[in-house]
Amino acid sequence: MASSRKLHADELDIDEALVRRMVAEQFPQWAGLPVEPVEPAGTSNAMYRLGAELVVRIPRIPGVVEEIAKEDVWLRRLAPQLPVPVPAPLAVGGPVDGCPWPWSVLRWIDGDTPTADRTAEPGLLARDLADFVTAMRGIDPAGAPAAYRSESLADRDTGTRKAIAAVPDLVDVAAATAAWEHALSAPAPAGPPVWIHGDLQPGNLLLSPDGRLAAVIDFGCAGLGEPAVDLIPAWYVLPAAARGAFREAAAPDDAAWDRARGWALSIALLEVAYYRDSDPRMTAIARHVIAEVLADRV
Fold first, then answer.
1. What span, in angstroms and rounded, lies between the C-alpha atoms of 38 and 213?
2. pLDDT tens digit sequence for 115-168
3. Burial class (CB within 10 angstroms; exposed 0-12, middle 13-18, buried 19+) of 1
4. Which of 197, 281, 206 is nearest to 232 (CA)?
5. Is the distance from CB of 174 to CB of 181 less than 8 angstroms?
6. Could you give the angle at the alpha carbon of 138 between the alpha carbons of 180 and 148, nearest 5°?
7. Residue 26 to residues 34, 104, 106, 164: CA-CA distances in angstroms?
8. Whole-angstrom Cα distance, residue 169 to residue 235?
9. What span, in angstroms and rounded, lies between the C-alpha atoms of 148 and 246?
10. Among residues 90, 167, 203, 213, which one has the fewest Cβ atoms lying within 10 Å of its Cβ?
């Protein structure tokens, strides 16, 4: 029996028995360690604790399979240049019966995912996030792959408008459209693409008990893109009162901040349209982001 409900039509069937067999066949040194699913479940990858110190990461859908190899190569190079721990792979497994794709074993990092209404030190977290974003965009881009979100906002126009039209019962269509068009009107970035994480959402951030940023995980979307993409934690993670501290520390210009608001809105709208019938948690987060963006728009 699969460990959780399916979120995608083309999703792999993954359960604890499969994970145990995969580990035993390819990494016998870890065979016999207890296996249990990580909750909340990821939307693109299944995560299973392997003993106390390891975690197995398996693509749930074909579209993210290439992320395993990308992380194996690039996280080892990025990790020493970042201000918080990141989960560089310890080993990469190959296809087995029941899983036709590569998968990875990583070091487990303790921490809690943030929520905007339960963040112990939002001002300090805002600065921690800005430090991470700044460190990412300062890494040498030579040879780096394109980020998953390497397109422009204009390239997302059709998809974003379709998402708005698909959820008129969940979203203020007029307000969302106006906010989106405001973001589209912002000047394009003037500089070259930089390193971005590409998906700085709550599920990819871990906090220490004192509310500070303890780790950033899931670099499957990472690569070269425009810096505004990595400003989405302003609406995805931080309460409104801490947004100014993040903006001051990350130091975007006005156009980048307007584009960042558009990125957060577009990503959240597509998530609401896609997950509304399959993942209440993701839908609730995305609706919160949309509300924050609409309330924040100037």
1. 20
2. 766 677 899 999 999 999 999 999 999 999 999 999 999 999 999 999 999 999
3. exposed
4. 197
5. no
6. 45
7. 16, 11, 15, 45
8. 22
9. 24
10. 90
Q: Specify burial of residue 187 (Cβ count, 10 A radius: 0-12, 13-18, 19+).
A: exposed
Q: What is the pTM of this model?
A: 0.91
Distance of alpha carbon 122 from alpha carbon 235, whole angstroms: 12
| SS3 state of residue 186 | coil
Q: What are the backbone angles phi and psi of residue 45, rounded to the nearest 5°?
A: -130, 140
CB 88 within 8 A of CB 79: yes
Q: Residue 236: what residue type?
A: Y
Burial track 87-120 (b if 16+ CB lie within 10 A, e otherwise): bbbebbbeebeebebbbbbbebbebeebebeebe
pLDDT at 173: 97
Extract the runs of DSSP E, i.e. beta strands, from the chain: 35-37, 45-50, 54-59, 89-93, 103-107, 194-196, 205-207, 213-216, 223-225
- Specify whether the CB–CB gap between 7 and 275 falls below 8 A: yes
Structure tokens that stand for 19 in this block:
């994970």
Q: Which two tokens stand for residue 107?
A: 């070091």
Tokens representing residue 2 in the block: 């699969």
Q: Which two tokens stand for residue 82?
A: 């970042």
DSSP code, position 8: S
Instruction: Say how far apart CA 55 and CA 76 lie, in whole Å.
Output: 17
Cis peptide before 40 (omega within 30 of 0): yes
Q: Give the whole-angstrom CA distance, residue 253 versus residue 237.
A: 20
The residue ranges of the chain whose pLDDT is under 50 are 1-4
